[in-house]
Design a protein that fits this description.
Elements lengths: L2 E4 L2 E8 L12 E5 L1 E2 L18 E2 L6 E10 L7 E6 L4 E6 L2 E6 L6 E4 L7 E10 L21 E2 L3 E6 L3 E9 L4 E9 L5 E7 L5 E8 L4 E7 L14 E7 L2 E7 L4 E4 L2 E4 L2 E2 L2 E6 L13 H13 L4 E4 L6 H10 L2 E3 L7 E2 L9 H18 L7 E3 L5 E2 L1 H12 L6 E3 L18 E3 L21 H4 L9 H5 L11 E6 L2 E6 L13 E7 L17 E2 L1 H12 L6 H25 L5 E5 L27 H5 L5 E6 L4 E3 L6 E7 L7 E9 L4 E9 L5 E7 L10 E9 L2 E10 L5 E3 L2 E3 L4 E5 L2 H9 L4 E4 L5 E3 L9 H10 L8 E6 L20 H5 L2 E4 L10 E5 L7 E7 L2 E4 L10 H12 L2
Parallel strand pairs: 24-25, 24-36, 25-26, 27-29, 28-30, 31-34, 34-36, 38-44, 47-48, 48-54
Antiparallel strand pairs: 1-13, 2-3, 2-6, 4-12, 5-35, 6-11, 7-10, 7-13, 8-9, 8-11, 14-15, 15-18, 16-17, 16-19, 19-20, 21-22, 22-23, 32-33, 37-39, 39-42, 40-41, 40-43, 43-44, 45-46, 46-47, 49-51, 50-52, 51-53, 52-53, 53-54
Helix pairs in contact: 1-2
Length: 894
């Protein structure tokens, strides 16, 4: 390239909801590009209050014409001029009133050859951009749930000047064995000499060679001895210069190889583990993804501080700046075609040739523009696809011809309940291997059965190894149909006899892990200073105010958030304990403001902490080196002597091969300390050793903290310990050694008993109550309530956890936190949540927090009209230590 003319800046503007057959005569506004109409506030304000996603204050659907003049001092028609637009919608270019062409890529730059128009003098440039007429739905490239269907141009805007013979379409593939493949085109010359120069990190030239083109195509293979590899630990970036005559082409690359050994993911030949996050390119201040490297570095650095080493882009592809930032920081990137639907074969129902051709071309454009980046290691054909498996494999074959080093999947969570082998796939990303073979901890109710974190007593022992190996689960006999969640709707699909028997022999990645729903932070409203505003917060606030609950939102936020964060810890540690799993993709580290408002992040949408855990604390269970405690539960009686196994998950440059793990278990009455020495195997997961704590000496209920430490590694767990207690619980009441509490079914009976000097508590009958759940709610109540109802399936309870008045005297012998912890699992499981909407003066001792759609005032233990009420069926868990202690505390402190 000889020169670049920057055409960003002030442009005249004309907008219309409808297209025109001729160019506008009167441009009645102006705009500074790059930008969008929404960010520049170029249309009337949208007063809608969108409940399910951020409201775009200046949303607009239609067409925008941008006009400016460009003056050339000399004739350039003997050169090649390419007008380039980075990140726009469907663009059409006009020079001096003549149409040059149209580009429709949502992910790659638009390039127009305007060489014949580059005469000396002043020229009029008009760019029409439309955010309608897409050949595919666009996924999260165009969704109101994420970056919106903005209209504008948001990246670089240049006219690039090249000599008559110039280099283009360069592909660089560099592998961990030191092999380097370089190919491309020399436009305007045959049998040209291309000089390749490779410079290593540090500026040392390591290769210089001439390549002779075959016609207009050149290709060469090289091998570098002792190549410095690129991965998450060592970000070694090489530069490549290609010269042909007057033209110089520069790019960067890195030596990296993703591969699989059966179910093990290998990076540069060594076992690795992906700690990924979903990304839908949510940028609340602008609505569009930035094209600036520093912006992306800031974002990715935050993710990396939480142990993230992988980004999966949901039905979208980030701009070049994101890959550059990932190159420098060591993040494994997985762009995805902007598609969420069905890929049928020719002749099948739903076959859409135009759409498939577009998606294939979009994939080729993505690979062409971005795959030289060492961080671009993986690629997906779309999200939760259905259709023809053979056709999906054919599309992988087509894209692989563009760059054979990319690690491909046919899609993220394809065929949902019944995935099957697609030979061309390099890895499998999903959530289950049949209806019952689940390898994620949580699911929507419409996709039941639910996950172990939703159904099992909290523990640190569960793993997915037997499930992935196919040692349990179900198979489908074939021929039937099922209803499935399809996007944010419902679809009926037909199964085949092969479905449900898939045992993968390639790396397995768990898809969209987590989705634990945090309570809204109403203080966030003031942070939205751009075109997007969370007017749903106004709706949620009004609902809470109507129920008299808004003044307690901060307590709800803190209690629900602490519980959700623990659910994420359990989820991530389950993945790390699974030797057959090669990684996970969180949904999410940050909030997702769409699809009904899914506040599922420990960070908000701005990638700012909500205050529940520090990055260092999160990395204690989400990093390349993690100490893990494996134990069947978190709650123990004094008579129990559990075996606690210590595991080490370790790989990569800093893999720990030997050492000693220090452990301590500290409470009011315990001070257990020890050390276990170990030597690790070559595998990622190592059993360090076990210890057996003795609880027989405890005399009171207490919280105990187990800490594992080795050098800079730390992880901790909370146990709840209970002494042996002489408590008898029946359907009639509670008896302790010195006291008795009688259960009754009415306030009147309770008053009579109390008047006679007895203790009485009303056990509510559940007639004015909702189902209760220990685990945090999944994604958001609204979206999956609608889906479940449309499928005639049960609706999730929708509760979000407990808010506990831990200082109430009734709980004085039952130490606890203000939020849900494992000692409440049995109580919640054996209860309903009573609806107290008609008693706004009641403040429950143990409150159940409801979701922001329903906003019930809910309680499990509360006083109403001076009488104690309880919805917990204590007798159903009469022999459980924590229930006995809870019953004792209530009875003796009545």
């Amino acid at each position: 390239m000889i020169n670049t003319i920057d055409i960003s800046g002030k442009w005249e503007l004309f907008i219309s909801e409808n297209n025109r057959t001729s160019l506008p005569d009167n441009y009645n506004d102006s705009i500074i590009l790059p930008d969008t109409l929404s960010d520049a506030a170029k249309v009337a304000e949208n007063k809608n209050r969108d409940e399910g996603y951020l409201t775009d204050k200046y949303t607009f659907t239609g067409y925008a014409w941008f006009r400016r003049s460009c003056t050339l001092e000399s004739d350039m028609t003997g050169l090649v001029s390419i007008l380039t637009l980075e990140r726009t919608r469907v663009s059409t270019l006009y020079i001096d009133g003549a149409e040059v062409g149209t580009c429709d890529s949502l992910c790659s730059s638009h390039r127009y050859d305007i060489s014949s128009y580059m005469t000396a003098g002043t020229h009029e440039i008009v760019i029409r951009v439309a955010n309608v007429g897409y050949k595919t739905g666009g996924g999260h490239m165009t969704s109101p749930d994420t970056q919106t269907n903005w209209l504008g141009i948001v990246g670089k805007m240049n006219i690039e000047i090249y000599p008559k013979s110039y280099i283009s379409d360069v592909r660089v593939i560099a592998s961990a064995d030191g092999s380097l493949s370089v190919r491309g085109l020399v436009n305007g010359a045959d049998n040209a000499v291309v000089t390749a120069t490779v410079t290593a990190p540090g500026g040392i030239r390591v290769l210089k060679a001439n390549i002779i083109s075959d016609g207009d195509t050149f290709e060469a293979e090289f091998r570098l001895e002792n190549a410095q590899l690129w991965d998450e630990f060592e970000r070694n970036i090489y530069s490549l210069e290609l010269r042909c005559g007057e033209d110089i082409f520069n790019t960067s690359f890195g030596f990296v190889t993703f591969s699989g050994n059966d179910r093990k993911l290998l990076v540069n030949g060594s076992e690795a583990f992906l700690r990924g996050k979903h990304d839908g390119m949510i940028f609340p201040l602008t609505a569009y993804a930035p094209c600036d490297v520093n912006d992306w570095k800031e974002r990715l650095k935050i993710a990396k501080s939480y142990g993230i080493n992988h980004y999966r882009f949901h039905t979208c592809c980030p701009p070049d700046a994101a890959f550059t930032a990932a190159d420098e920081l060591g993040i494994y990137m997985e762009p995805e075609l902007p598609f969420w639907g069905t890929i049928a074969a020719k002749g099948e129902d739903g076959y859409n040739e135009e759409e498939q051709d577009y998606l294939i071309n979009e994939g080729i454009r993505i690979i062409k523009d971005f795959s030289h980046h060492p961080s671009f290691v993986m690629m997906s054909l779309g999200n939760e696809l259905w259709g023809n498996r053979e056709r999906l494999g054919e599309i992988i074959d087509i894209l692989r011809r563009e760059n054979h080093s990319i690690f491909f999947t046919s899609g993220s969570n394809n065929f949902q309940f019944w995935p099957a082998e697609i030979p061309q796939e390099d890895f499998f990303a999903g959530v289950r291997l049949s209806r019952d073979r689940l390898f994620r901890g949580s699911y929507a109710m419409c996709d039941a059965p639910l996950g172990h974190i939703q159904t099992d007593k909290p523990n640190a022992a569960y793993d997915y190894d037997a499930i992935i190996r196919g040692e349990n689960g179900s198979e489908n006999e074939g021929g039937d149909t099922i209803q499935i969640q399809y996007g944010t709707g419902v679809k009926t699909v037909k199964l085949s006899a092969a479905d449900g028997s898939y045992i993968p022999h390639k790396p397995v990645i768990s898809h969209e892990v987590g989705q634990y729903d945090y309570f809204p932070d109403f203080d966030e409203m003031k942070m939205y200073t751009g075109p997007l505003v969370p007017r749903y917060l106004d709706i949620f606030r009004e609902r809470l105010e109507e129920k008299g609950l808004y003044t307690q939102w901060r307590d709800f936020f803190e209690a629900v958030g602490a519980h959700c964060t623990q659910c994420y810890k359990d989820e991530i540690e389950t993945a790390l304990r699974s030797s057959e799993l090669s990684g996970f993709q969180l949904l999410d580290l940050q909030d997702f403001n769409g699809q009904g408002v899914s506040l599922v992040g420990v960070l908000n949408a701005f990638m700012q902490s909500k205050g529940f855990i520090t990055p260092e604390g999160w990395r204690g269970f989400c990093d390349s080196n993690v100490l893990l405690a494996k134990t069947e539960k978190y709650v123990f009686g004094a008579e129990e002597k559990p075996s606690v196994e210590i595991l080490l998950s370790s790989y990569g440059k800093g893999k720990i091969k030997s050492g000693a793990v220090q452990y301590s278990l500290i409470s009011d009455e315990l001070d257990i300390n020890g050390s276990v020495e170990f030597t690790s195997s070559d595998a990622r997961l190592t059993s360090v050793g076990t210890f057996v704590p003795d609880f027989s000496g405890i005399t009171k209920p207490q919280k105990a903290v187990l800490t594992l430490a080795m050098g800079e590694l730390h992880n901790s767990y909370v146990f709840w310990l209970y002494p042996q207690t002489d408590v008898e619980i029946t359907e009639n009441g509670i008896k302790t050694a010195d006291d008795e509490l009688i259960f009754t079914d009415s306030v009147e009976k309770a008053k009579v008993l109390i008047a006679s000097g007895k203790k009485a508590m009303v056990i509510t009958d559940g007639s004015n109550a909702i189902e209760n759940a220990y685990c945090a709610d999944f994604w958001n109540y609204h979206m999956f309530r609608v889906i479940s109802e449309s499928m005639n399936k049960p609706v999730a309870p929708g509760t979000m956890g407990l808010l506990i008045d831990k200082n109430d005297k009734l709980l004085s012998a039952f130490p606890c936190e203000k939020f849900t912890t494992p000692q409440w699992y049995e109580a919640v499981t054996h209860s309903k949540a009573d609806i107290l909407d008609d008693t706004p003066d009641v403040t429950p001792i143990v409150r159940v927090v409801d979701n922001t759609e329903r906003c019930h005032r809910l309680g499990m233990l509360y006083k109403k009209n001076g009488i104690l009420h309880c919805s917990i069926r204590l007798w159903e868990a009469a022999d459980v230590p924590e229930i006995k202690q809870l019953a004792k505390s209530i009875t003796e402190n009545f």
